[in-house]
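Example 3.2
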Amino acid sequence: MLSDVVDLLACPQCGAGLELDENTLLCDAGHSFDVARQGYVSLMTGAGGKFDGDSPDMIAARADFLAGGSFDPLMDAVADAVRATDDPEPAILEIGAGTGHYLARVLDAVPTARGIGLDVSKYAARRIAKAHPRAGAVVADVWHHLPVRDGVLSHVLCVFAPRNAEEAHRVLGEGGALVVLTPTERHLAELVDLLGMVRVDDRKVERLGAAMSGRFDRTDLRDVEYPMSLTHDDLTRLVGMGPSARHLTPERLATSIADLPRAYPVTASVTVSTYRRR
């Protein structure tokens, strides 16, 4: 709930702290932000950023796919990375939190933690607001100044999401951890050519390290890879929840999947990196 994390938030207009007064967030300078009836607050300012928010269909597909359990080992790996940092009362921000599944898994694993799920999509924020009783949902753009106070967080999570190293460094406290999950070139490789999905940059982890240089030190690196057996419905949801959904028509997707085995083998392959703030 927003009431549990409002002390971590900052006014996007002036940077001052915010307080919750019934259904409105207020700062001392008089800026106010209404809490939507679905439980999230929009702290977006200015023009749009580099990325469009996920559509309602994309968010629904992601929620259904993740609820099926195929990515549970990935969620567990992120939760394990947070637990390994051994902070007694973590304050966590997930950037690009989507449906809030990963953040909820972390909060379940760490009973003393509280979290903010941030996404540029209001449809995502609606899901995040219901994801966990210790999570607050915020609409904001990672490529703008994050609406979070300086140095108040123990962890920032980026799961299949863009990273703003400068802002992550600002909002993390001394010794805070940035946990990043990135796909390898083997992730969903069986589907890339078959369905014309967006390809993974095989230098992504290398570039991630370069982006962190000077601000963070990598303290842990874990590869998670395993086979999945996906139904046609699983495949439809998996493609529909990611960026490939913007390029594939439902008709083309259905045609491509129709002749596949009912249990189609697909590889999940990611790297979970933990970086400590300097």
